[in-house]
Amino acid sequence: MAIRKPFRIPLSAAYTQRISAINTQGGSSGIVGVGIVGLMTVGGTIGTSTGSANKDARFINCFSETITDPITGKKRVYTVKRPGWGVNSTPAAGNIGNDIFIWTGETPGNHVISAFGATNSTVYNGVTSLGAITGRVTGLTETKVGANVPTIVTASSDSTGWYYDTVTAAFTKITDADFPGNAGKTLAGTFCHMDGYACIMDTTGVLWASDLNSVTAWTATSYDTANAYPDAGVAAVRHGHMIMCFGTQSLQFFYNAGLTPFPFAKEVAKTVKVGAISADAIARISDTTFWAGSTPEGGLSVFQYDGSVSRISTPEIDGLLILAGTTNVSLTTTRYYGRSFVRVKAAASVYVYCIEEKFWFEETTLTPLATKTASISIGGTMVNYAISNISTLGKVFVQNHASLNFTDNGEAYGARVQLPPMDHGTARKKFWEDATLIADREATTSPITLFYSDDDYQTYTVREDGDLSADQVYWTRLGASKRRAWGILHQANTPMRIEALEGNFEVGV
Description:
single chain; five-stranded antiparallel sheet; 1 helix
């Protein structure tokens, strides 16, 4: 006699555990539709994807968030769809992006400064050109010099330094012969600023500092070497009241000791034997720094520093980064839904880490749009901006938290939840009677698809007849299997917040 049982399956799980450095990940560049042959993705058909990296739990364009009742302490876990990127402006059609930041030092403190160009960069305030430089911008920074003059400063890929201030109103090259780029040094990363000094590393691991309250005046002896280990220099970034000097296999800290001519001294006790792969692979949220790097023993991981170093990437994410190659990995950060995210571009794929949830997911679109991001939060306004160093659209993209949309540059993308196979504690065959989706109801039509695989993701069955605007999202006559991997696909330009699948099945004898 068959036994009838109810089931409730949370639509959240740990990211796939089947990825290693020998398993490529196919078909992960973006969901574009549902076809007769299965769920279709750009670059592959999920219905025929058999690689290990396509199996187990995957979350594409969605992530888990935990809501805790402050009275009872009870926690509920939802899976929510990420917001999309609209178009803010088009400063440089036909060009890739180099960098973006918000110029807070110049009134009213909300200027969106971006740089575009494959060979030489042009820098824009909105869509207005501020001027061009030779080589590509390696990182836009800001400071105030002289009589408190707001100034933009950047290094270039040709090891020159440039600045734009509100007095001269033009991008000007730093010409001092003692500037390291002019003295034959190869610059590593871009500038960081502390206490009136502009600091920059070179590839030999030397940290240089400008004269006080200047970006144009440099002294030939104003430097020190981050030489705790004999590795090459990667970049210098500011962390609170310290300067972090990244090498290829080490991290060393400097603080302002009031010395002369070079004002900084080493904080030797903080030295860490973990390096960074490139300046592009370093990003920050407030006073927490994130980077992709390695140890002398090998491997490639994502680390964070918030007073101590910790690794935030899983072995599976590490395997994907290794497959992408160190020259194809970069980091940036953003915030939305009250949470903080580290975005890791690995070749054509983007993997995102939610700091509060400690949760990894995949972000896909036809072309990665947000490879460099910047945000502004003034009063009740919070807006994220982004540029792409892959796309030649030459656009600045935007996420306005007061008016979110769920398309990227007007193109639809899908949020997909794929769960690991489940047998509900027995290898006997289950006869699935029905399933109800526990989810938020949407105000407008919001189609949602149920899919499942009974043969370890070799093939899929697709049910396209759900709608989040309905009173109930409900499916019946769901076949039979010994094990089943369930999944949900949502492609509408609406939010999605789902919690669980629940229903009934019979266990065969």
